[in-house]
Write a structure and sequence with these properties.
Layout lengths: L18 E5 L7 H14 L3 E6 L6 H9 L9 H11 L4 H4 L2 H8 L1 E2 L13 E5 L8 H8 L1 H6 L3 H14 L5 E5 L6 H10 L2 E6 L3 H18 L4 E9 L4 H19 L8 E3 L3 H4 L12 H16 L4 H13 L3 H14 L3 H11 L6 H12 L5 H12 L5 H11 L4 H15 L2 H14 L4 H13 L4 H14 L4 H13 L3 H18 L3 H18 L7 H10 L10 H9 L5 H11 L12 H5 L2
Parallel strand pairs: 1-5, 1-6, 2-4, 2-5, 6-7, 7-8
Antiparallel strand pairs: 3-4
Helix pairs in contact: 1-13, 3-6, 5-8, 10-11, 14-15, 14-16, 15-17, 16-17, 18-19, 19-20, 20-21, 20-22, 21-22, 22-23, 23-24, 24-25, 24-26, 24-28, 25-26, 26-27, 26-29, 28-29
Length: 603
């Protein structure tokens, strides 16, 4: 018994990986098949699942593993691991190896069919009962679990085993196939290993009475502190009246034994394949009533251990509210496996509400963005983040462009973001050009690229080309006409510029555009008229004064090239034009104009 020098008499804190034991009082109710089909569905959804065959006297799941690779070497398993701990002491694998090494040596992968895989992160591994050779029964006898428990060593040994599996970090959950009846193995599985128990039972008298007796014993041993999920199996089709009577008998017996109401709505209906083959059903078919029964059981079980979609969303919202972004990320890694990603839109928006730069939050946001699905609202999220100058807008744009690379509107918005927030002008230009190549008649992209060329690249000739391309699409766009007029007047092309300015005034009158955008455009147009065409529009300054006095502005609009051109062309009030440009662009207060006679005399 030298091995017990490595096991404390009281178990240490266990890892958070939930252990779920599947128990039935009698065999023949499809317990092992229910467990393995559920395990397959969960692994296909992206969870890392370990199945432990603890039915040591009749290890059915171990035969499934052997049947997958019938010519492979004998596979060590649970009996080998525990028997080694008893016989070899500190030199046993359970004590000398790291948790990861124990997992690698004693658990074995079980291949999933491609049709079952919904998420690439999933994995199904099996810890078999042990090497099923001629010495298996001898090793099981030498292990002598009953004797270990009588001597007080069994419970610490199982606690150490559970701890090592949890600390490996290799599994999201562990499913344990228990021995039937009142055996020592079933007690270990349901009392010492289980955080949750799935009770699989038939509805005949033996199953009901035996399961009720088990529940009474479990309640006495645990004080009722176990989460139970009941599964009726196999449920025959038809016989509705008798089914109702037997279900009522089970309901009453189980509730009395467990001392609280029980839910018997989970059920697996009888199917001939259950009696004819050991092949897990969901590995062969992903449709039909039997598959749906296993899938419904998997959803119930996932919810019972906190891995259901609703619970995960609540936990993530709570974590965000308390700024526990590491916790939010950990739960989101599970949510992405059970949700199509739609929930991440709301989560992302909520996370941005009180954004503060930090590594935990940034990692969380990166994960959300990476897993956002193709969805029309993604563009809106990116736009909202863009408007708030949020640095993660770029990541959202990149994500959507991976999904919809030919969305010219989106690519143009991304180029605008790169200009206004990131200041990556080379990347912005590349995206503008690609967006225009994708949709040569997209007026917004043509106009914005022209502004970029004019204000950032200072390439007025090419900017004029793109303004004119945009006006070919919409000759009556007042903003485009105003921008072209500004460019032409700044370049000294006065006749063309003033004609474009007149067209802009006419277009605005026809459009009747109101509000801040309309006022901003009129500020710009009246400024150009005063700076370059005072003779043609003698009332321009008076109209501009009225607009500015009531608060109209064109924030950030660059008018300096027009100021310089006004100086060069001999405008009679060049300093006033410069001050006026600053006020129009909202770079100076209105009061700065009070010292100019021209302003005082304006209508």
């Amino acid at each position: 018994m030298s091995g017990y020098s490595s096991i404390s008499s009281s178990p240490r804190a266990l890892a958070a990986t939930p252990f779920i034991t599947f128990y039935s009082f009698k065999g023949g109710v499809g317990r092992s098949m229910a467990l393995f089909n559920v395990a397959g569905i969960m692994a296909g959804r992206g969870f890392r699942v370990l199945v432990i065959d603890f039915d040591l006297e009749a290890p059915g799941i171990s035969y499934l593993l052997r049947n997958q690779a019938p010519h492979g070497p004998a596979r060590p398993g649970l009996v080998d691991l525990l028997e080694g701990a008893v016989s070899d002491g500190d030199s046993a694998d359970l004590f000398k190896c790291t948790p990861g090494e124990v997992v690698d040596a004693y658990t074995h992968p079980y291949a999933l069919p491609q049709d079952l895989i919904r998420h690439p992160d999933g994995e199904l591994r099996v810890l078999p009962a042990g090497r099923l050779d001629e010495r298996y029964q001898r090793r099981l006898d030498e292990l002598d679990l009953s004797g270990l428990y009588r001597e007080g060593h069994g419970q610490p040994l199982m606690a150490e085993f559970k701890k090592i599996i949890g600390e490996s970090g290799r599994f999201d959950l562990v499913l344990v196939d228990s021995r039937t009846g009142f055996s020592d193995e079933s007690g270990i599985c349901t009392r010492d290993l289980a955080d949750h128990i799935v009770v699989v039972t038939g509805l005949n008298n033996q199953n009901i009475e035996g399961t009720a007796a088990f529940l009474r014993a479990l309640h006495e041993a645990t004080g009722g502190k176990r989460d139970l999920l009941f599964v009726l199996s196999p449920v025959p089709m038809g016989e509705d009246e008798l089914m109702e009577l037997r279900e009522k008998a089970a309901q009453d017996a189980f509730a009395a034994a467990w001392q609280r109401p029980v839910d018997l709505n989970a059920r697996i209906y009888y199917h001939p394949r259950l009696a004819l083959t050991e092949e897990p059903h969901v590995f062969r078919s992903s449709r039909g009533p039997l598959y749906e029964a296993y899938a419904a059981l998997e959803r119930r079980m996932s919810a019972s251990v906190g891995l259901g979609e609703i619970q995960l969303r609540k936990e993530i919202r709570a974590a965000i509210g308390s700024q526990q972004y590491g916790r939010a990320l950990e739960r989101s890694r599970f949510l992405v496996k059970v949700d199509d990603g739609t929930s991440f839109h709301q989560i992302l928006r909520r996370s941005m509400m009180d954004w503060k730069d930090g590594p935990e939050l940034n990692s969380f946001l990166e994960f959300l963005v990476e897993h956002l699905p193709a969805h029309t609202s993604l563009h809106r999220i990116a736009r909202n983040l863009h408007d708030g100058s949020h640095p993660f807008a770029g990541r959202v744009y990149e994500r959507v462009l991976q999904q919809t690379p030919n969305d010219a509107d989106l690519r143009g918005d991304f180029a605008e973001f790169l200009v206004s927030v990131v200041k990556d002008f080379d990347a912005a230009e590349a995206h503008y050009r690609q967006a225009i190549e994708t949709d040569p008649r997209n007026i917004d992209n043509l106009g914005n690229f022209a502004i970029f060329l004019q204000t950032i690249r200072k390439d007025r000739a090419e900017a004029e080309t793109y303004y004119r391309r945009a006006l070919d699409v919409d000759p009556d766009d007042g903003n485009l006409l105003g921008n072209l007029a500004q460019l032409l007047l700044a370049r000294g092309h006065d006749e063309e510029g003033l004609d474009a300015l007149q067209q802009a005034f006419t277009a605005h009158s026809s459009d009747g555009e109101e509000g801040e955008e309309g006022d901003a455009l009129m500020c710009e147009l009246h400024f150009y008229a005063y700076a370059h065409g005072g003779d043609r529009w003698p009332d321009a300054l008076g109209a501009l004064k009225q607009l500015l006095t009531r608060g109209a502005r064109s924030p950030g609009w660059d008018l300096q090239s027009n100021v310089q051109r006004a100086r060069d062309s001999g405008h009679p009030e060049p300093e006033f034009v410069a001050a006026l440009a600053d006020v129009v662009a909202d770079a100076a207060p209105l009061a700065t104009l009070d010292g100019f006679a021209a302003w005082q005399q304006a209508g």
